[in-house]
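User: I'm writing a short report section on ligand binding and want a predicted complex to refer to. Could you take this sequence and uridine-5'-diphosphate-glucuronic acid and write out the structure as tokens? A short remark afterwards would be nice.
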Amino acid sequence: MKIKNICCIGAGYVGGPTMSIIAQKNPKIKVHVVDMNSNKIAAWNSENLKNLPVYEPGLSKVVKEARGRNLFFSTNIEKHIQDADMIFISVNTPTKTSGEGKGYAADLKFVEACAKQIAEVSKSNKIIVEKSTVPVRTSEKIKEILLSNNSDVNFQILSNPEFLAEGTAMRDLEIPDRVLIGGDNTIEGKKAINSLFEIYASWVPKENILTTNLWSSELSKLTANAFLAQRISSINSLSELCEETGANIEEVSKAIGMDSRIGNSFLKTSVGFGGSCFQKDILNLVYLCRYYGLDQVAEFWHQVIKINNYQKKRFAYKTIQELNGNVKNKKIGILGWAFKKDTNDSRESASIYISNDLLNEGANLFIYDPRVSKERIIEDLKSLFIINGESDNEISKKLNSVKIVSDYNLCFENASGVSILTEWDEFKTYDWQRIYNNMQQPAFVFDGRNILDRNHLEAIGFIYKGIGNH
Ligand code: NAD
Ligand code: UGA
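Assistant: Sure. The structure tokens for the complex follow:
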């Protein structure tokens, strides 16, 4: 069946960019992206493309080309579900905060709400595509909800997980390593797979479009993220050994990565991985393994998260130690709040946790990020304080020690140290000599991403502390 109308529920970091590319590459298909958040939809529709709710290099160009032609953003969810012959569910699947599986399992309430709404309003046959990352066998649950709420129309369910990484989303969508489509091994199932296959085939080479059964597709997404995160925790765990032994993690990483069997990507040591997905997806995998009684397997993957938490704590602790074991009333500049460069997303960013640890020790923080808004930074900190059960009094005291600045120079005046927590390219272009002159002496740079030129900084007079080297 040739698809003419697509509806995507969820206009977030995945729904927005993914549908923009699908619309750009398939000008004959009408694509409506809907969301219950009217502010977000208004931002997607804003005249000024700088105000799109998602920052991704190259995104505004694609939106400019397709928006109003065959790409639309709307809050009229019901209408666009009814009109569509294919519906992508691209809503958030966070970790559960209560009930069975609390702290580990994926909360599927948003996915389930979509399925219920689709069933309630649909009057014609539809292909439902799981774009959100979900536990294996979720499609079974979606099918159950659809059938029990509407037996008049035929629903085919596909799994089509998304592998884009933020900051490089447009490139990842344009030239994906692979597109994965899982579906039922029935005549109707195969037809549905084919319909989605055709959409991607308008720009992705056919040999890069992989079709599998539903469960393999769902599980491949979770495990791909787990493998990537596991590499980061592996290299981060070794960074501490390097600090103890005099080996240099950058050199070790290069040497390991040149083995073609290992490969060199995802071996960059850091203050710990962040982002909305790695942690939640691995916790979900741990939950699934435990659910099936595979405790040893669960423990293996859980360790990836434990090392990541340890790395963040370790970095904060090291900063405090270097500043004579006391940061009370000392000013520390924080450069970078996004969980990686080239995105305005700060979900689960290491910066949040490291800043909290420094605030707990009484530091004064001046925070700068080129893309994350002041409101977002305050909200991130507040949410963590609340999760940690802090009183209103404690929260306002800690927030009084935080200044978010839009001029990065303000981070340095009379600061004892500066921490680089995101690898934004612009940090490398700063005039570090001038910065040094503005700071208290001795002046420390804690380079949580090893992006600055150590020799240059030390020649200026800085005390340079990277990760995984002396
Ligand atoms: P997001 O929070 O940015 O966007 C989700 C959107 O869904 C929100 O705008 C929310 O308002 C909307 N929504 C939720 N329930 C709704 C409903 N019932 N009706 C209408 N709108 C609804 O999330 P995201 O980062 O785009 O992630 C979406 C899914 O994709 C998650 O499962 C995630 O694991 C997965 N994923 C994310 C990335 C990434 O880089 N962010 C990459 C691959 C996969
Ligand atoms: C990750 C995966 O790379 C995507 O394939 C996947 O689709 C996505 O999760 C998802 O499911 O949400 P993303 O989190 O956007 O993408 O970004 P990554 O480039 O994977 O970086 C994640 C974190 O790991 C960042 O904090 C980054 O700084 C850190 N990282 C990455 C390292 O510390 N070292 C590395 O070598 C690579």
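A remark for your report: The first strand starts at residue 5 and ends at 9. Residues 9-15, 35-37, 40, 77, 90-93, 110, 113-114, 132-133, 162, 164, 166, 276-277 surround nicotinamide-adenine-dinucleotide (ligand 1) (CB under 6 Å).
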